[in-house]
Please model this.
Amino acid sequence: MSSYAYTLLIPLIPFFVFVCVGMAEDKLKGKLGGLIGTAGLGIATFLSYYTAFKYFVADHVAGTGYTSLKAFELTWLHLTDKLTINLGILIDPISVMMLVVITTVSFMVHIYSLGYMEGERGFARFYAFLSLFSFSMLGLVLATNLFQMYIFWELVGVSSFLLIGYYYEKPSAFSAAKKAFIVTRFADLGFLIGILILSFNTGTFDFKELTNPHGVAIASMGGAAFMGLSVITWALIFIFIGGAGKSAMFPLHIWLPDAMEGPTPVSALIHAATMVVAGVYLVARLFPVYALGGPDALHVVAWVGGFTSLFAAVIATTQTDIKRVLAFSTMSQIGYMMLSLGVSGYGGEEGLGFMASNFHLFTHAMFKALLFLGAGAVIHAVHSNDMNEMGGLRKYLPITHMTFLIACLTIAGIPPFSGFFSKDEILAAAFNSNKILFGIEYFVAGLTAFYMFRLYYNIFWGKDRHYHHTPHEAPLVMTIPLMILAFGSVFSGFLPFHNLVTSDGLGFESHIDWMIAIPSILVGVVGIAIATVMYKKETALPDKVAGTFKYMYKWAFHKFYIDEVYLFVTKKIIFNYISRPVAWFDRHIVDGTMNGIAGLVQFASVSIKGLQSGRVQQYAFVFVTGAIALVLIYVYVL
Amino acid sequence: MNILTLFVVIPTLTIAGILFTKDLKQSRMVSAIGMTLQLILSAVLVYLYISERQAGNMAPMLFTFDALWIPSLNIHYAVGVDGISVAMIALTGVVVFAGIFASWKMEFLSREFFISLILLATGVFGFFISLDLFTMFLFYEIAVIPMYLLIGIWGSGPKEYSAMKLTLMLMGGSALLMVGILGIYFYSAPAGSPLTFNVLEIAKHQIPIEMQRFLFPFTFIGFGILGALFPFHTWSPDGHASAPTAVSMLHAGVLMKLGGYGAFRVAIYLMPEAAHEQAWIFIILTSISVVYGAFGAIFQKDLKYINAYSSVSHCGLVLFAVLMMNQSAFTGAVIQMISHGLMTALFFALIGMIYGRTHTRMINEMGGLMKVIPFLGVVYVIAGLASLGLPGFSGFVAEMTIFFGAYEHVDTFHRVATIVAVSSIVITAVYILRVVGTLLMGPITDKHFLHLEDANWYERLSTITLVLGITFIGMAPFWLSDMIHFSLAPLMAKLATIHLPGM
Model:
C-alpha cells in the first residue's frame, strides 16, 4: 500500500516547478523556464507510466479484480463534526489511466510548446501556468474524496482561465477567459450544492465509502423525496451540473469555443484532452453512486450527453475557424462519453458503457490532442485560423498532413485505428440500453466523419492561397510530439480496457459486435465520401448545399444563438434589471433614508436654533412675552 | 507586565514617541518600529498561546489580568484571550504593519496622521483583549473617534460628508450598544451578587429571557452597523471611498471585524436564547447583505466602491455565519473575519498604490496596467482570486466552513438561506473578473500610463506581508481552525445545556 507513496511526487513536481518558475519568471532567460517545466513533467510522466505498469501488471494478481488503495492521506481541515477534508492520493484503475492520459498529453504539449511558443513574451509564465495546470489536474484525478476533487476542480478552472487569457493584451482573449471562468463557476455552484446535499446525507466525502456498493452511503440512498426524485438523485444531478460545466455539455458549453483564444497547445491540453473530460471523470468516479443510488440522474447524464453530441456535431459542420471546428468536435465526443456512462449499468458486462466511456476518453485524448497540435502546426505555418485562407498545404507540411490524416481517420471510426474500437463499444452499450440514443449516435458518427474530412480537405487539399511566405513544416520539436501521438492514436485501440478499467474492478469478456461495427464503419465511410465529393476540389457544391438548407445552415453557423441568449440574460437582465436597480436602491432608498434622517435632524435643529441666538433683547422679549402670557392664562383661563 | 497589556502599551509609547518627531521621515520610522514590535508581539502571543494549550491549559481565557478600575460601578480593567481573540489580534498586527508601510509617503501633517492611525490601532487591540464590557466599549470608542479626523483631514472627495456620515452612523450604533451593555449589566447578575461587566461572569448565569428579547436586537444591531449589516451599511462605501489608503485598510480590515467579533462575543455569547429566537430576522438581513453587496459591486465604477460593496457581501457572510450558531459556522465566521481582513486590506493598499500612479480610481479610465506595473497587477489578481474564493487562499476555507456549517441545520429556512449565500460565489467571480479585466488586461488605454513605475520596496513589503497571510491560511488552515475550534468549547457547552428548540 505504502509502496505507492512515491506517487505523491507526481502532482508535487509540477507544483514546485510552478512556484519556482513563477517566482523567477522575469529572470529566466530564453527557453530556460520551458526546459525546467518540460524536465519536471518528464519525471512526472515517467513516474506515471511506472505506476501504471506496477498497478496493472506487476502488482496485479492474475484472476482477481483491481482494488482501489490510498497511497497517502492527511487531514487538512475539520469542516464539521462529521466531515473532514482530507488530501490524499487514490490509486485505482481510472485514476491510473488518467495519470497516463494527463502526463502523456501534457508532456507532449510541453515539448511542442518549446517550438510553438518560441519568442513569445512571457514564455516562462506560460510554462509556469502549464505546470500549475498539470498539478491541479493530477491532484483532481488522484483525489481520495469529493471535496479534494472540488478543490482541484477550482484550481483547474483557474489555470484554464490563466492560460486562455495568456495573451492578456488582446481584449478578446481576456473576455474569453472571463467567460470560461464564470460559466464554469456557475456550474461549480451546482457542484458545491450537490456536495453539500450528498455529504450531509451520507456523512462522508470519501470516495471509497461513497462508492462502496454495500456501504452505508448507497444503502441510505432512498431518503426523502422532493418533486418525485430522491434527495440523493437531486444531489447527483447537481453534481452533474458541475461536471457538465467543465465538460462543456449543453447548455453550459458556450465557453469552450471562445476558449480557443488561448494558445493552441493549451487548447490541445486543457480544452481537448484533459480538463474538459473532468466531468466525465467525475461521473465515472461516482459511478456506483449514480448507478445504484440515483439511476434517474444517470438518465439525465445520458440525454444531456446524447443531445450535446448531436448539437455540437451539427454546428461543427458549418464553422470555418479550424480550432472552433475542433472545439465543437470535442464537445460532441465528450457527449459520447457522457452518454456512454449514462446508459451503463453497474458490474460485469452491465458496465460495458462505463468501460467504453473510459476507453473513448483515453483514445480521444490521443487523437484530439494530435488534431489540435496538428492544427497548431498549420496555424504556425500560415498565421491564420480560418480554413478559407488555407488550401493545398499537404505539399508543404508532409508530417503534419500524415498525422492529421491519421487523426481524422481515427475520429471517423475507421478500423484499425483506436477510435473505431472505443466508439464501437459505446454504440454497443447504447444499443443495449436505449434505441433512440443509439440512433442519434449513429447519425453523429456520420456527421463526425463528414466535418472532420471537410476540415481535412479544406486545409490540405484544394488550391494554394496567397500566403505571406511559403508555408514550411514545423521544427522537429513540434513534429515529434505529433508522431508520438499519432502512434498512440493508431495503437491505443488494442489496449485490453475491458480487463483493466471496469465499473467494479473485475474484467469481463468483450468482443466486437460486427452487427453494430459494420454499419458504423459504413456510416463513417459515407461521411468521408460526401466530404470528399464536396471539398476535395473546390466546387460550388458546398454553397449550393448551404443555400438549400439556408435557415438551418444559418442557425447552425450562429451556434443556434445560444451565446446571444446568454448575453441577453447576463447583460440585459442581470446587469440592467438586477444590478443597476440594486445600486440605485442602495443609493437612493437605503442611503436616502439615512440622509433623510440626517436632514430631518438638521431641519429640526435649524428650526429651534433661533432660541439660542445669544441676543439679550430677544431673550428679554421672549421672557416678557412669556410672563405676560402666563399671567393672562392664570387670570383668564384657570 | 501582563503580555496583553503590552498590546496597549506599545502603541501608546509609539504615539508618545511620534510626538517628539519633526518630519515625515522620523515619524514614519517611529511608527514602523512600534508597529513592527507590535507584529512581533502578536507572533509571540500566538506562539505562547499555542504552547500553553499544548501544555494542557484548559482555562477558557489565558493570560488573564484583572484590576479594579472604578469601584463604585464594579468596572474592571480585565483582559484575557482565547483562540479567537488571539487570531483577531494577529490579524490586527499584520494589517496595521502593512498599513504603516502603505502610508510611507504621507507628506501632509504626517505626525498627526500617524498618531491618529496608531490611536485607532490601540483601540482595536484594546477591544480584542478586553473581558470587561465597559472597557471593551471604551476601546471601541477610541477606535471609532480617530476615524473622523483621519477621513475628514486626510481624505479625498467629499471627505467632510463621508467622515460625518460614518461617524454619525457608527455613533448611532454605539448608542444602541450602550443600551444593550447597560441592560446586560443591570439584569445579568443573579439576586444577591454584585452587578458586573465581566463577560465571563455574565456568561455563567442566564439573563432572564424577557430581557434578552429586548436587549439582543440593540446589541446585535449596534455591532451589526459596524459589521455592515444591511440596511445599515451605507456609511461603508462613502467612508471607504473618501478615506486615505491606510485608513481604508484598517477600517475594512480590522475595524469592521469589531462588529462581527462583538456580535459573537457579546450578543450571541451572552444571550443565546434570544439569539436563537430572533436569528431568523437577521439571517434574512445577512443573506440579503451577502447577495445584495455582490450585485451592488457589479455596477460600481470606482475601485473603492467596488471593494466597499464587496466588503458588505463578505462581512454579511460573517454575521450570517455567527447567526447559524453551530461549531462549524462559528469557526467559519472567525476564519472569514481574518480572511476578509487580510484580503480587503490588500485590496485597499493596492487601490491606493494604483491611484497614486494613475490619479484615478475609475476603472473605465484605466486599462492594460498589467504590462506597465506587473508586480501590482499580479498581486491584484491574487487578491481578486482570493476574494472570489479560490482554493489555496484563505477565503475558500472560510466560505466552505461557513456553508457546510450552515447546511447542518435541517430545516428548509436555513437551507434556503444557505443556498442563497452560496450563490454569491458566482456573483463575486463576475465583479472581480470584470475589474481585473478592465483594469489590468487589454491594451494600454492612456499613453500617460506607459511610464508608470512598479512597486517600491515599502509597497512590496506591505503587499507581500498580506499575501503571505492569505496564502498561509489558505494552504494550512488547520492551525487557525483548531485554535478557534478549541475556544468555542465553552460556548458550545452552554448552547448544549440550554436545549434550544430545533437544534
Observations:
- The beta strands of chain A are 69-78, 84-91, 225-226, 229-230.
